[in-house]
Amino acid sequence: MARISASVYTSHVPAIGAAIDHGKTGEDYWKPVFAGYDFSKQWMKDNKPDVIFLVYNDHATAFSLELIPTFAIGTAAQFKPADEGYGARPVPTVIGHPELASHIAQSVIQDDFDLTIVNRMDVDHGLTVPLSLMCGQPEAWPCPVIPFAVNVVQYPVPSGRRCFQLGQAIRRAVESYDEPLNVQIWGTGGMSHQLQGARAGLINAPWDNAFLDRLIADPAGQSEVPHVEYVREAGSEGIELVMWLIARGAMSDVAGGPAPMVRHRFYHVPASNTAVGHLILENG
Ligand code: DHB
Ligand code: FE
């Protein structure tokens, strides 16, 4: 049986990708951001998974107002880094895991979560920046990655509760896969930020840190928090944080296992317009 060994949570700020790609990580502005991931890069080497199930949001790159899947699973053999207007990032092509992805689609859809199946898709900063933060600049990503895109851009977006329940269904799906694969699940996006309108530039550090506390200790309670609180307290793009509940819902304590170990926690303001948050939780 496959199992989920750990969950990783991180912001996905596009300027972080640009700083890496243009050799600016040593600049004073960026140093403290990347310092927060030194532990994580070593941890990735020491805890290399067989597959990463990467929950992220597409930013009108692969999808648009013409087609808005709430939950979309990438079942292809590979996914190219997208051109988001400045050319594609110079990062490796993402190798998928069509067998596990198809199994998860089968299991989760039979478990009453309707997923969109995606056999061709370019992946934007929502997916590639977390990989860069955790893996650095390798020739190839360390393992296959299953992209799982969530609509948090165009309302109606899924509730925290639905995301948390979906995470539980994903854990059941992984655990019913025959091969003994070590799977990590990543939840990405956030933390507080707002890119437009009168409140552009909003950051709410106390709220972000309370979110991290509660995600660790009381994810079921956090999953009941309505959208309006995310938007009011963490800004219009703070809603990306509901995706973290998918990864958290897949941890074994939610199904009665021991509490996860907090291996790493990091918070920093600012990176571009965003508060950066990061957690690594290992299943006990
Ligand atoms: C920024 C953050 C995001 O999450 C994003 O998708 C785009 C831009 C920013 O901080 O500029
Ligand atoms: Fe984003």
From TrEMBL:
A GO molecular function held by the record: protocatechuate 4,5-dioxygenase activity
Domain Extradiol ring-cleavage dioxygenase class III enzyme subunit B: start-end pairs: 8-276
InterPro entries tied to this protein: PCA_45_Dioxygenase_B, Xdiol_dOase_suB
A Pfam match: LigB
NCBIfam families the UniProt entry points to: PRK13364.1, PRK13365.1, PRK13366.1
Name used for this protein in its record: Protocatechuate 3,4-dioxygenase
Source organism (scientific name): Azoarcus taiwanensis
